[in-house]
Design a protein that fits this description.
two-stranded antiparallel sheet, alpha/beta, 298 residues, seven-stranded mixed β-sheet, 11 helices
Length: 298
Amino acid sequence: MTPEAGHSAIPLHGVRDQAVAALRRAGIPDPEVDADLLIGHVLKVGRGRVQALALAEVALAETDAAAVVELVSRRSRREPLQHITGRAPFRHLNLAVGPGVFVPRPETEQVTQFAIDALALVVVAPDDPDGPIAVDLGTGSGAIGLALATEVPYARVYAVENSPEALAWATRNADETRAENFSLVFADLAIALPELDGRVSVVVSNPPYIPMDCVPLDPEVWRYDPPVALYGGADGLEVIRLLSRTALRLLRRGGTLVLEHGEEQGAAIRQLLTADGWHAAATHRDYTGRDRATTAVR
C-alpha cells in the first residue's frame, strides 16, 4: 500500500475524498462506505484500516490509485458494489456473488433469524433419526441455507435452487463454507425433495415477489439482479402460492414457514396462507419498521 520505487506517491486521503465526491454525484446512497470498501478491496484491508491509513496520511502507489479510480467509475455507473468486489457479507458469512445470482440484502439477515429461532426451538425425540430438518426454497447464492447450517450445526439443511446460474454461485459458496450438514439440490420448487414430505421442521424462502408491472427504484436491482429472482407474476404472489403448497407437503405438523416479501404484501400473504390451511399467520417488521416477513405454522 506504499508507493513502489520509481512511482509517484499519491495521498490516500485525497484519493478517498475524490472517490466519495464522485460516488455522491452519481447518487450512491452511502458514498463514504462504498469508497472505503472499494479502496479496501484494492489494498486488501478492511474499512476501518482504510480510514486509519487516510488519517495517517499514507501514500498510495500510482497503480493502486488508478485501480481505485477505475472501480469508483464502475460503481458510479451503478454496478453493484458486490459485483465489483465479488463478495457479499451476510450475517457471519462472506459470500461469492456476481452476474446471474441475486445479491443478498441486509434485511434478509433478519428474516433468516426468524428461521434460525424456529429451528433452534425444535424438540426432537431421542429415537428420531432425522433431527431437525430445514429447507431453503430458492436459495440463490446459498445465503439463507448456509446461515442456517452454520448457526444451527446440529440441524440438517437442504437448499433448493432451480436456476443453473444461481446454482453455480451456491455451489461455490457451499464449497467455501464446508458445512457438512448442508445439501444443495437442483430441482423445481414445486416437486423438490419428495423424500422429505412430512419430516421438515422449518421451511424458509426469499422468493421473487415484485409484481411484473413494478420497476425497482435502484438501478443496481433492475439492471443487474436476474429477473427470475425479482418478479413474482402479475400480483407478485405467484411463487408464494407455489411455496405455500410445497411447504405444506414438506413440513411436519407444528412446523414453521418463514417467507420474505414486500412491505405492502403482508395482509394478502396472511390471507393466502390461512386459506391454504396454515395456522397463526403473522407478519413481522424489519429494522426500518417495514413489513418484511410472514411466518405461519403447519
